[in-house]
Design brief:
two-stranded antiparallel sheet, DNA-binding transcription factor activity, DNA-binding transcriptional LysR family regulator, transcription regulation, LysR_subst-bd, LysR_HTH_N
Length: 297
């Protein structure tokens, strides 16, 4: 049973006239008549009483009309669901992110995406960059948010945000009185930092920066979480060089100061290269992320 036959039947039932019904569905009258006859042959009972003045439905036709309308409505809904899925408007999206983005970037992206795509379920997973790459390869997440570089050739990426490093200092520190620092100003300060194995790219970038200024940071305490590191700064244990948006985590006893010629850290979205653009939902997510961070592409 073809949908066009149902459309023709509904038009005829509502117009009660072959000529008007044919015009409504953009076919000639003979084609409409043949379509109704084919439908009746398939159903096996007469659906229409044909008179010289108008068309009437048989009892079977009246019953069939309700089902035909429901079938056409369901078909239209099914088509719309497919189109919405192709636009990335429905479904599920699993997003991996490095922990620091929870303090800047991620909230803006997720809030905007949920507002624009309320029918997409978003699952967030806090993972290191290495864990995200493995999760992407294994299909455990759809898109990752991390820092460059992305080493896996099976993954594709798009820049989202660039942020400079800043100095986090104890509020009573002598350098906190300055509005801007040079990296050499920190040469003799104790540092707190991540263990290298957790954030090797970040760690190595800071070390190269300091080495270029003629010193190697004296890391006196390590911690794996940013709030812990900033708490250590507040306690006067050492200074820290976070990405600028970590300054949104307002912690008593910590001040942030820009540093001249600070390296810029690039935050990227990453997805499986085998899926062009990451698929419709990922493409929708990337578009929203660009809008939220002011980096539309």
């Amino acid at each position: 049973m073809e949908l066009r036959h149902l459309r023709h039947f509904v038009a005829l039932a509502e117009e009660q006239h072959f000529g008007r019904a044919a015009e409504r569905v953009f076919v000639v009258q003979q084609a409409l008549s043949n379509s109704i006859k084919n439908l009746e042959d398939e159903v096996g009972v007469p659906l229409v009483l044909r008179t010289t003045r108008r068309v009437q439905l048989t009892p079977a036709g009246r019953e069939f009309l309700g089902g035909a309308r429901e079938t056409l409505a369901q078909a239209a809904q099914t088509v719309e669901r497919a189109r919405r899925a192709a636009r990335g408007e429905v479904g599920r999206l699993t997003v991996g992110f490095v922990s620091g983005l929870a303090f800047g970037g991620l909230p803006e992206i997720v809030r905007s995406f949920r507002e624009q795509f309320p029918n997409v379920s978003v699952d967030l997973r806090e993972l290191t960059a290495q864990e995200q790459e493995a999760a992407l390869r294994g299909g455990m997440i759809d898109v990752g948010l991390m820092l460059l570089p992305v080493r896996d050739p099976a993954l594709d990426s798009r820049p989202l945000w660039r942020q400079p490093l800043v100095a986090a200092l104890p509020a009573g520190h002598r350098l906190a009185r300055r509005r801007r620092l040079r990296i050499g100003d920190l040469a003799h300060e104790p540092f707190v930092f991540f263990p290298r194995h957790l954030r090797a790219t970040y760690f190595d970038q800071v070390m190269r920066w300091c080495s270029g200024a003629g010193f190697t940071p004296n890391v006196v305490q390590e911690a794996i979480e940013i709030p812990t590191l900033l708490s250590l700064v507040a306690a006067g244990v050492g200074v820290f060089l976070p990405i600028e948006f970590f300054g949104r985590l307002s912690l008593p006893g910590v001040v942030y100061r820009p540093v001249e010629d600070a390296p810029v850290v690039e935050i990227v979205a990453v997805w499986r290269r085998e899926e062009p653009g990451g698929g419709p939902i990922v493409r929708a997510f990337l578009a929203v992320a660009g809008e939220a961070l002011g980096t539309q592409q």
